[in-house]
Amino acid sequence: MPNQIDFQKVAIETLSIEQHALEVLAHQIDERFTKACEIILQCKGRLVVTGMGKSGHIGRKMAATFASTGTPSFFMHPGEAGHGDLGMLVRGDVLIAISNSGKSDEIMMLMPLIKHLEVPLITISGDDKGPMPQNADVALTLGNIQEACPLGLAPTSSTTATLALGDALAVALLEARGFTADDFAMSHPAGALGKRLLLHVKHLMHTGDELPKVSPDTPMNKVLYEISNKRLGLTTIVDKNDTLQGIFTDGDLRRLIDRQQGFDVNLPVSEVMVKNPSTISQEARAVEALEKMNEKKINQFIVVDDANKVIGVISMHDLIQAGVN
């Protein structure tokens, strides 16, 4: 039978120990951290991260974070590196090697080749006593931290601190590079964030033959045909230069019928069109268009250029279909 324990108490104690580990780590941030950032910023190649076991798992996440925040990076397994994968590492790269003890045999076996390639080495370890930090250009340390594991064996606080140190490096480099949300979206095009930041009105709007347009003197029977034919629930009304004069929508038609109990099909649309309709720029983000549609309680925007010429129409259906939310 398993021991009867207070699970919540153990959880809180574990988090408290790991929180203290981060406090210890904060005191390890000094000129070594600055030098590590400078080396990575000067890197002409890629930032390669390596580590065995749990350190390797943390290293993979670190490499992914670096890569998505403007620092080209990948993970190299040190065991596989000794059997050919060291070819991933070339002159011009920078290597981050992780080992809490600073004594990883698999990484130390690679040391002669790392030095031969003249690849700058940044190590992350508990202290600077081991052979790895002794061979490093910069030896980052976690400090004297206690593992949350009661046996003192399973990497817990040390991996948490290592991960946090990797995040600190990534964020410092991100800010130094002037990395923006748009830059971040470029490496996340398939995600929700990518759609929010990369999709603009111009990517989704209807243009050319799909764009409903009539002149102000167009009779209503032809206006209704244009609305039905283009299937966007409206038509724009433009002058001979395509400058926007107004719009007429399905909703306007229903209101007109309710108000007049029918209407003259030869009536020019200029007499019933909505003047000064809501418009948007083609450079606006798609998510901005959706937010403004919800705010104004409308289903479409007329897209105009700087001269107020009609260049497109975008609908809420287009935005939802594209996964903008």
From TrEMBL:
Which InterPro entries does the UniProt entry name for this protein?
Answer: CBS_dom, CBS_dom_sf, GutQ/KpsF_isomerases, KdsD/KpsF-type, SIS_dom, SIS_dom_sf, SIS_Kpsf
One MF term in the entry's GO annotations: metal ion binding
A single Gene Ontology biological process assigned to it is: carbohydrate metabolic process
Q: What is its EC number?
A: 5.3.1.13
Q: Which UniProt keywords apply?
A: CBS domain, Isomerase, Metal-binding, Repeat, Zinc
Q: What class of enzyme is it?
A: isomerase
Q: Which Gene3D superfamilies match?
A: CBS-domain, Glucose-6-phosphate isomerase like protein, domain 1
Which range is the signal sequence, renumbered to this chain? none
Catalyzed reactions: D-arabinose 5-phosphate = D-ribulose 5-phosphate
Site, as annotated: Catalytically relevant: K54, E106, E147, H188
Domain named CBS: which ranges? 205-265, 273-325
Q: Where is the SIS domain?
A: 36-179
**Which Pfam families does the record associate with it?**
CBS (PF00571), SIS (PF01380)
Query: What are the binding positions for Zn(2+) in this chain?
Result: H77
| NCBIfam families the UniProt entry points to | kpsF
Q: Which family does it belong to?
A: Belongs to the SIS family. GutQ/KpsF subfamily.
Q: What PANTHER family does the record point to? A: ARABINOSE 5-PHOSPHATE ISOMERASE KDSD (PTHR42745:SF1), PTHR42745
* Name recorded for this polypeptide: Arabinose 5-phosphate isomerase
Annotated source species:
Acinetobacter chinensis
